[in-house]
Amino acid sequence: MAHGGDVSEVRRRYPDAPEPWIDLSTGINPVPYPVAPLPTEVWSRLPTRQQEHALLEAAALRYGVRDLATIAAAPGTQALIQLLPRIVPKSRVAIVGPTYDEHETCWVRQGHEVGVVASIDQAAGADVVIVVNPNNPTGLLLPPSAFRPKDGLLVVDEAFVDLLPRDASLAADLPANTIVLRSFGKAYGLAGVRLGFAIADKPVVDRIRDELGPWAVSGPALEIGRRALADSAWLEAAAARLADDRRKLDSFLVSAGCEIVGGTPLFCLARHPDAAGLADRLGRQGIHVRRFARNPQWLRFGLPANATEFNRVQAAFV
């Protein structure tokens, strides 16, 4: 399955492209949270329950979760996406799409009956309903009222919600039979830390913890996550900067003949009649963007990291 971030592969396709490459193919904050030196023991010792508890306290406060028994930490949201189909009995699964393809892949792999539907209303009657909110790649954001009441299990992937108002998330007021997934690495620009969270009723969280097993999250990830999630000032400043950068990027794309059809604070989805040609043109100039085989006129653009990258991107469209 194709994902963003595969710069080594595009470098082979465009060996003469200028370096360094600008990777706009992912929806990750290009200016990461500054990680100060970590205590030696987080590298040399097994993670402790106290460290995990401290991380969960910071995550619960950030997400509005009132009971620590209803939130579990995992080595990335992807690990949870792969785990959930293994702990749910064989079901009829409706995924609101098009969206992040790993949801469909993982449920199909475990033998579930999976269908992709265009709206949450079309998911009525399914045993499991999966929604990415805001959606990746369209950025469509459903209000909390769209999710209640529903029959069966509801899985809401909120990987891109961190930079939106808190009331955009279900985490603080969880509907019954709902699992919310939250990503750490995207908003904080630290995807390599591999940290994510599941928020659900206690019996479900207990099952997820059992399946993940001991020491599921590394000591460095526990400490980095705790620090970053507690830093409200950094997140507020990042949100303001990213909003300005999105407006600047959108202006470039419109000038280049693109139509802005969606996005989030971390990426823009654009339509272009010759998306493949535009992606090739950018690739020859060392700029990697995300293409979609199922929607060949779509391109997803992450945000440049600084003025130098913005200037290179702007020049590539001239």
Short structural description:
The chain has 318 residues and is of the alpha/beta class. The protein has helices spanning 7-13, 41-44, 49-63, 77-87, 101-109, 185-188, 202-212, 219-229, 232-255, 275-283, 307-317, and strands spanning 22-23, 71-74, 92-96, 113-117, 128-132, 153-157, 178-183, 196-199, 259-264, 267-271, 287-288, 290-291, 298-302. A 7-stranded mixed β-sheet has the order 2-8-7-6-5-3-4, with helices on both faces.
Short descriptors:
about 325 residues; alpha/beta; Aspartate Aminotransferase, domain 1; Aspartate Aminotransferase, domain 2; 2 domains; seven-stranded mixed sheet; four-stranded antiparallel sheet; 11 helices; 13 strands; about 35% helix; globular
Descriptive report:
This protein has 318 residues and is α/β, with parallel strands linked by helices. It has two domains: 7-32 and 233-317, Aspartate Aminotransferase, domain 1; 41-230, Type I PLP-dependent aspartate aminotransferase-like (Major domain) (Aspartate Aminotransferase, domain 2, 3-Layer(aba) Sandwich). The chain has helices at residues 7-13, 41-44, 49-63, 77-87, 101-109, 185-188, 202-212, 219-229, 232-255, 275-283, 307-317, and strands at residues 22-23, 71-74, 92-96, 113-117, 128-132, 153-157, 178-183, 196-199, 259-264, 267-271, 287-288, 290-291, 298-302. A seven-stranded mixed β-sheet has the order 2-8-7-6-5-3-4, sandwiched between helices. The chain has a four-stranded antiparallel β-sheet with strand order 9-10-13-12, covered by helices on one side. A two-stranded parallel ribbon has the order 1-11. It starts with 6 loop residues before the first helix and ends with a helix. The mean pLDDT is 96.
